[in-house]
């Protein structure tokens, strides 16, 4: 390696045989592309809007991959690693890392949006695996750029059954800390994701596992084949293709072209839930078991008695107890249930009053966690107390410490949910501690030496654009990426297709049994709703006062515009107090001018963040 490296850095021919051929070829390509191995790599990072689009495009893959990444992380945790998921173009979408690695130069380079193409970053595992579609490891000084020489990276492509690349999984670590088995773990995780995709893409198909040995049916070396209700092959994993080598184990082929028993012959035994013996058409004996029954297939027609079907995506128990008939939300809810079951941090965005807190409580309910739902209003906690509020403090930890000591909200949320409301207002000084907590779920109260591990579902919410704050360096990008593994974006009230249902639902709550006319709903729908559902609720309350008959009609909403604007400019508490309303209006005006930034409003007006928060919430 020493000879190869000095030849490379001198610009001489690299001695033959001094490198594995795949690395030697890559060095040559980098040289041809004019990259200088002693210079810094070209470190392009896409803006978050692009990452978001790519994450959406890769949503089914991410859903499976994030679960595998967490598992992989738990297998290699503490060994100073980062695990990354990249999309088909080699752009990193998500990372999970040991805290120490995240702080290193390499950890700060492998971030969502970073691309690892060979022609920019030189020889590296992600770049090579993107080119070759093969699992690849690049150790230490095999990296083209000398500045990457302390890293070891292992990447494995994730392919669909047509052999097309969907994404890549990568594990990188300091070269001294590398462990031989990690490469195998990364390959296994990629294979597990590929298998998950067979199920995910084949909801309308049967999925059968097969292997020459029955005890291997549940392992990664088992073949998985998905077959439509008429016996056509809809997907087959890599192990399946290898086990059926020599046969047309391809998409669009038919079960009968692969196995002697034929589809209808095999199905009866398979649907009985047992393991059957079967021969492929080359005569090799195999064991086969059914892993999934096709949804919507009429199994009764295919065989005797009716079998259980795969349940619908949202069960009744999982349905929220607030209105969400709007398409964009109901689609999200199906995915949300999966994200919650994987324990992914969920980030809820939406204008004020769109129902973010309600959604956070729903997430807690979905998680079926026995612990508490613990809301923290990050905008209302004074900056200097933030860390001790979240992580607690020991008795006497502060000079003027009131207190006996407090466990902190993160511990109070153990086995429950920590809801970080107004998360954009977390002081920069506390963001590092929160990031570390998200990585290791460890709590160390201020002044304490002991560390406790907790198990907490994280939900955060904001009505501000954290993307912009990240660009302005007001919010840590790595913290943002950790918080928003899954985002629920609540539409403003004016964009909701279930507006009428929301009105009727609120009316039922405020005055059960009292009808509201369609004309009244139409009149409401024509208005602007800067305060969204919260404002609608207040307007309905006021209309009830004005109601004359046994129903609410459009006349109940004809309040003078000026009054309504003035009212909207004050918070509920100050509305009836001439003394407070002017001050309140000023706070709310500055708050709007600062784009909803509580800290800046507080600073500009010389008030505490808690005071500002009280008037703008
Ligand atoms: N889908 C819904 N159906 C009925 N009521 C709703 C719905 N969503 C929200 N609400 C009501 O609207 C009000 C505001 O909801 P919530 O406090 O959850 O909003 P928010 O987005 O967290 O607001 P903020 O950003 O100001 O904290 C509450 O009274 C809530 O019950």
Automatic annotation (TrEMBL):
Print the keywords alphabetically: Activator, ATP-binding, DNA-binding, Nucleotide-binding, Transcription, Transcription regulation, Two-component regulatory system
Q: Could you cite one Gene Ontology molecular function of this protein?
A: ATP binding
Source organism's superkingdom?
Answer: Bacteria
Example of a GO biological process term: regulation of DNA-templated transcription
Q: What is this protein called?
A: Sigma-54 factor interaction domain-containing protein
Ranges of residues in domain Sigma-54 factor interaction: 322-545
Q: Which PANTHER family match?
A: TRANSCRIPTIONAL REGULATORY PROTEIN (PTHR32071)
Stored InterPro entries: AAA+_ATPase, AAA_lid_NorR, GAF, GAF-like_dom_sf, HTH_Fis, P-loop_NTPase, Sigma_54_int, Sigma_54_int_dom_CS
